[in-house]
Specification:
Layout: H1 2-24, H2 29-38, H3 41-50, H4 58-74
Helix pairs in contact: 1-2, 1-3, 2-3
């Protein structure tokens, strides 16, 4: 019984990681927490990492996009 409780605590702890990343990018904490708990925290982490940051101002987003294009040109 102890290991089941420990496993549930670990699973929820891992599910918090993508939820915090999504929240920092301007997406729903609760939605990503549920995705991490019910589906897979690894899948939720990948999705949260690939999402575009909604908290950037248009000027910041343009600078990031220009930096990415510049980086692509160097390769």
């Amino acid at each position: 019984m102890f290991f089941i409780i420990l496993g549930v605590i670990a699973w929820v702890s891992f599910a918090l990681w993508p939820a915090f990343i999504a929240q920092r990018k301007g997406y729903s904490f609760a939605l990503f927490l549920l995705l991490g708990i019910l589906v897979s925290f690894i899948l939720a982490l990948v999705v949260a990492a690939l999402l575009r940051d909604k908290t950037l101002t248009p000027a910041e987003a343009k600078r990031v996009e220009e930096a990415l294009h510049e980086e692509e040109g160097l390769e």
